[in-house]
Amino acid sequence: MDYKLQIFGVKPHLQMGSLDDGSTCKPDNKSLFTMDKDVDVVEKGTFSVSSSVGDRNMIRNGVYKSIKTVIFSNKLNLLMPFGPLAILVQNLSGHNGWVFLLSLIGTAPLAQRLGYITEQLAFYTGPTVGGLLNATFGNATELIVSIYALKSGMIHVVQRSLLGSILSNMLLVLGCSFFFGGLVLKQQAFTKATATVNAGLLLMAVMALLLPSVLHNTHTEVHFGKSELALSRFSSCVMLLAYAVSLVFQLKTQKDLYVPLNEEGNKNENSDDPIEGPEVSKCEAFIWLAIITLCTAVLSDYLVDAMEGASVAWNMPIAFVSTILPPIGGNAAALTSCIMFAMKDKLDMSLGVAIGSSTQISMFVLPFCVLIGWITGSPMDLNFQLFETAALFITIVVVALFLLEGTSNYFKGLMLILCYLIVAASFYMHQDSPDDKEMTT
């Protein structure tokens, strides 16, 4: 009986006495309370363990969903294994032609995923900043390729790769946007204010490229071989300043003038399009942005190293290989994004990517590379030679004329695409002069 009483905290001996004295046996309430507290501790411990397991499962499911959304949701991602395959071929055989081709194919899905991630960020930042982000990271491939090429001393390759990206964005990407958008919607309108500002910046870039070339070819330099380099560096600083002011002008000072037409309430009141939302969170988008940019940097190193070898292996001019082929992979994100935006009647977003990307390359990436060359002691300048400068000047004039009306249709898009084919054929027939060959070494 004693052990039973001990369980409930009852004293093992009984004291005899009157009821009035209150000397009957009573349970020890403190022991009961202590047992209740122990049960609470066990329950809380069990709850904390189950909650931690639930958190881990939630994180695991979130990571799986994010990978599925970003990696396995697009058929173009089937080309991603070509990147590691290019690295493998380089280490095993060193065949520059295959390494260049595989690297070029491998950069296409990476560039497309950059476009997709920046499109997701546009849901959180708005269409104006979203277009700027898309243009920025859509040009990440060109910037990384240029830095690696500049590090290797291939100055003319840097110039031509950037020039090729500008030509591709203005003719091919914009042309495809107009063409496919015109097939879905016969005629589309866009905000002329943004197009006018970008056209002015592009003409300023042409002037900055044309004057060093004219100075070099007319042999009117004050200091031979030095004046054009000094002029290029000064012009680069001015171009960077102008581009920074243009960003403040479009995003802050005159923000109301750059609202896309399809965002004004009286433009698309009868639109029946479903409301779309982001597929990944803001934090996930930034993480994927860093991962994909790093992969692009690694693959771009192999692409640059194999460029000249591919030109020899394929018996193609280096002008064509360095100007026309790299934008195929680098501008894949811009091309797919612009076509998608145009077919959804978001032509302002297409212009923000195509024309905005060209403006950013000419007014930011190009002068930035000149300053990098200045810091590293490389004579990178804005002298693109007459042939390349003439191709850029004619392209900007043609595109500016097409943007004057503020409308687009499939015929304008077809004209721009055909113009790009002419430019590509011109570079295929172009051969470097002896002075140009010295710049690539």
From TrEMBL:
Belongs to the Ca(2+):cation antiporter (CaCA) (TC 2.A.19) family. Cation/proton exchanger (CAX) subfamily. One of its GO terms (cellular component) is plant-type vacuole membrane. This is Vacuolar cation/proton exchanger. The chain crosses the membrane at residues 162-185, 197-218, 230-251, 285-304, 316-343, 349-374, 386-404, 410-429. It is found in: Vacuole membrane. Vacuolar cation/proton exchanger (CAX). Translocates Ca(2+) and other metal ions into vacuoles using the proton gradient formed by H(+)-ATPase and H(+)-pyrophosphatase. Gene3D superfamilies: NCX, central ion-binding region.
